């Protein structure tokens, strides 16, 4: 079941019809107060600033003791806690209760039960009188349509609004997208002539204050940018109610869109016939999908801080939105990278699916396989559904992210350890060989030293490491002059992993030795970048035949790839503790891709304690923002919480109140790295390859931060899929600062056997556990 809680009342619904080159369906984003709607072709911030229209269903409540409640500030002034008790990619609820005992709940969901065309938004409103006295009030449902004239391919020159078929319509003329709002309730009043919420509120007799305070609706009546030619119409209907004590009433609303008003009306009528049965079917279908996911996903309980408990949910629901259905050249499910302007990028796909493997390993494996299998060229160029490329260097070379950006081979190894699926690995393996073959042939110089075609390929757009001062493209300038530390480390690790996988799959000694020999050669090259006097691996500029002076967090990658000597591991410890800036600009914990390099470098250096420390610093700060209720969700104020973000500016001031807003694009997959760091390094579950197929093997190495090490506190992590098992573990802090660790391992089948083990651990102490299905758990 979905873990209901008191979530932030901000978020997105997934629109499965949304792509980019083969038909953007628009994204469904919440709005301050109780509202949800389309932004088409996407929300205008991050990756796309051009918008054609926005259309929302906004609810207003006139209740005893509160007056009209429209946007977030109205709830605050009345000291009402507006929250969401259900916050998935399929349902987003808004809940509040008045001092008089009236409980209101509105659930938004994609309304088409049998298709996923993304053209119908449903809303179920539930009002219950939990007080001792009868209560009456009003609900207004508003269809708010904003059109940016001159954008798009149709001839929209204006908007009209009118009553039609028992509902209200707003549509473009002389052509343009049309919207229709209809309900199952009895309408008491209708308005079609407002152009702002301040105007609409002024039309409501009980809301005279709006006439004297036209700026009150700053969250709903936004200012448009210079150059935007926006027209707007708001059509609304009012529904009155009277409830006896204990009585409840419900209202179903459908907001539909189509290419004409006639078709939008017909779509709404179809959804609401038979007392809205099709809408109820849609709700049930989407909740069933949520329950199926969460029946197999990890959950936190006990004494975890609330923002941590809910932060895991926000992350996993964001990642669910990254998984798109087959489309165009993508014959498998594919990773969107970010939801606004979806595209396939190897780096993000690898990291996203590693994190998702903690909840849905089957989907993660399918997407990883498809990323390589559906790639139009061996280097997995960044592409869209129609086969077009979107990362082409200035010399015309189609580029994909390099082996070092999010370390996809490292991600694949960790997913394999988590699933032990040899069939999947065997199917994937030829593509991995081909991928490294491309880099060996097309991206190495005559001495075998690897390079990036451009800084985009590195994922580090126009980084100071490249020494490029004039690149108007933002990253497409050629970067072949740089022999980079992180790429050299990744090539070493990739070749070793190909050898290891060949051995695991029984592909023959010649295959294994061939890749090992190439790995050894890359290790030798790696050593040439070490500067003993500086105790650091430095990039080398072939133009000047000299080392560069730039220090970067990514240059800790040799530790991640184990392309280091024991002496180098020791020498690099101070930089693991206090890493340099990324790109000479960014905090090392600001970008999730950089954080991943850092925590994995710590882990592979046997410093899981440092991985946990860095990981907690990042995820604690970001989860505080994810779970916040900001006064504004405008992009320049930090945007929308409740969804993963492109980067984490919060790490610069982690305890700020209110928490600092998010950075970059909203609904970005790798922004969910907190879930991975929480489960792997803070809770401490780290998988190993078992000695034989009948075993499972994993390390238990909890590293709770000092703020959680309070005697008597209990931290539960339940239902974690791991090597065909489901694991539950309970961490109890003892008076002597040890941790009592109770582990329950269940076969991942309904009739499977259950194994239980309890033991004590020092915080950070490692415990290897092997499970033999004949002998049970064994600690070593």
Radius of gyration over alpha carbons? Answer: 28 Å
Which percent band covers the strand fraction? 25-35%
SSE class: alpha+beta
* CATH-derived topology of the largest domain: Glycosyltransferase
Globally, the shape reads globular
Which architecture of the largest domain would the CATH scheme give at its second level?
Alpha/alpha barrel
Count of spatially separate domains:
3
**According to CATH, what is the class of the largest domain?**
Mainly Alpha
Regions with little confidence, pLDDT below 50 for 5+ residues = none
The number of helices is 18
Helix content: 25-40%
Characterization of this structure:
This protein has 780 residues and is an alpha+beta fold. It folds into three domains: 12-295, Beta-galactosidase, Chain A, domain 5 (Distorted Sandwich); 301-678, Glycosyltransferase, CATH 1.50.10.10; 691-779, no CATH class. The protein has 18 helices and 33 strands. Strands 1, 2, 3, 4, 5, 9, 13 and 14 form an eight-stranded antiparallel sheet that branches. The chain has a seven-stranded antiparallel sheet with strand order 6-7-8-15-12-11-10. Strands 16-28-29-30-31 form a five-stranded antiparallel sheet. A hairpin with a 4-residue loop joins strand 20 (530-531) and strand 21. The longest helix is centred in the middle third of the chain and has 34 residues, at 261-294.
């Amino acid at each position: 079941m979905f873990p209901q809680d008191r979530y932030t009342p901000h978020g997105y619904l997934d629109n499965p019809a949304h792509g980019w080159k083969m038909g953007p369906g628009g994204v469904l984003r919440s709005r301050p107060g109780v509202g949800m709607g389309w932004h088409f072709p996407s929300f205008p911030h991050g990756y796309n600033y051009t918008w054609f229209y926005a259309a929302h269903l906004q609810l207003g409540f006139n209740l005893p003791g509160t007056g009209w409640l429209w946007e977030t500030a109205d709830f605050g002034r009345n000291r009402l806690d507006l929250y969401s008790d259900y916050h998935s990619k399929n349902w987003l609820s808004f809940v509040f209760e008045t001092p008089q005992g009236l409980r209101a709940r509105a659930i938004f969901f994609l309304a088409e039960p049998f298709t996923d065309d993304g053209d119908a938004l449903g809303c179920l409103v539930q009002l219950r009188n939990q007080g001792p006295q009868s209560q009456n009030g009003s609900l207004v449902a508003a269809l708010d349509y904003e059109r940016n004239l001159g954008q798009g391919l149709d001839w929209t020159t204006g908007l009209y609004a009118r009553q039609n078929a028992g509902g209200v319509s707003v549509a473009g003329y002389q052509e343009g997208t049309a919207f229709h709002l209809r309900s199952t309730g009895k309408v008491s009043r209708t308005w079609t002539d407002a152009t702002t919420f301040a105007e609409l509120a002024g039309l409501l007799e009980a809301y005279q204050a709006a006439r004297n305070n036209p700026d009150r609706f700053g969250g709903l009546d936004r200012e448009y940018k210079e150059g935007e030619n926006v027209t707007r119409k708001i059509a609304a209907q009012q529904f009155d109610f009277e409830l006896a004590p204990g009585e409840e009433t419900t209202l179903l609303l459908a907001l539909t869109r189509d290419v004409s008003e006639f078709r939008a009306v017909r779509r709404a009528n179809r959804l609401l016939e038979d007392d809205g049965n099709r809408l109820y079917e849609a709700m049930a279908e989407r909740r069933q999908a949520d329950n199926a996911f969460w029946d197999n996903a990890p959950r936190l309980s006990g004494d975890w801080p609330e923002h941590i408990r809910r932060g895991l949910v926000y992350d996993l629901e964001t990642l669910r939105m990254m998984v798109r259905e087959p489309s165009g050249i993508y014959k498998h499910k594919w990773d969107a990278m970010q939801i606004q302007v979806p595209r396939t990028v190897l780096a993000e796909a690898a990291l996203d699916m590693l994190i998702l493997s903690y909840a849905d390993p089957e989907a993660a494996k399918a997407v990883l396989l498809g990323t390589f299998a559906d790639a139009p060229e061996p280097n997995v160029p960044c592409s869209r559904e129609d086969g077009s490329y979107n990362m082409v260097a200035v010399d015309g070379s189609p580029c994909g992210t390099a082996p070092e950006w999010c370390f996809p081979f490292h991600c694949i190894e960790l997913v394999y350890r988590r699933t032990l699926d040899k069939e999947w690995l065997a199917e994937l393996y030829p593509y991995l060989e081909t991928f490294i073959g491309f880099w060996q042939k097309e991206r190495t110089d005559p001495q075998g030293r690897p390079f990036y075609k451009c800084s985009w390929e590195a994922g580090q757009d126009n980084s100071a490491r490249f020494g490029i001062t004039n690149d108007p493209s933002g990253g497409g300038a050629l970067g072949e002059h740089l022999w980079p530390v992180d790429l050299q480390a990744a090539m070493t690790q990739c070749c070793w992993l190909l050898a290891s996988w060949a051995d695991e799959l029984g592909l023959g000694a010649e295959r294994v030795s061939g890749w090992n020999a190439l790995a050894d050669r890359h290790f030798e090259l790696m050593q040439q970048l070490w500067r003993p006097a500086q105790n650091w691996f430095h990039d080398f500029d072939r133009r000047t035949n000299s080392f560069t002076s730039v220090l970067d967090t990514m240059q800790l990658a040799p530790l991640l790839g184990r392309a280091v000597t024991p002496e180098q591991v020791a020498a690099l410890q101070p930089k693991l503790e206090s890493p340099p800036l990324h790109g000479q600009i960014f905090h090392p914990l600001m970008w999730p891709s950089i954080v991943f390099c850092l925590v994995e470098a710590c882990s592979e250096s046997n410093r899981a304690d440092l991985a946990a420390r860095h990981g907690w610093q990042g995820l604690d700060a970001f989860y505080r923002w994810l779970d916040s209720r900001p006064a504004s969700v405008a992009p320049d104020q930090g945007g929308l919480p409740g969804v993963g973000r492109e980067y984490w500016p919060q790490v610069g001031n982690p305890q700020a109140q209110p928490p600092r807003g998010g950075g970059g694009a909203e609904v970005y997959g790798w922004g969910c790295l907190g879930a991975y760091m929480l489960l792997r390094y803070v809770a401490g579950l780290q998988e190993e390859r078992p000695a034989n197929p009948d075993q499972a093997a994993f390390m238990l190495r909890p590293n709770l931060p000092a703020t959680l090490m309070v005697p008597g506190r209990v931290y539960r992590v339940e239902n974690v899929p791991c090597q065909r098992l489901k694991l539950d573990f309970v961490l109890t802090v003892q008076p002597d600062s040890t941790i009592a660790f109770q582990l329950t391992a269940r076969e991942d089948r309904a009739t499977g056997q259950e194994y239980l083990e309890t033991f004590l651990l020092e915080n950070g102490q490692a415990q290897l556990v092997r499970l033999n299905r004949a002998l049970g758990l064994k600690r070593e």
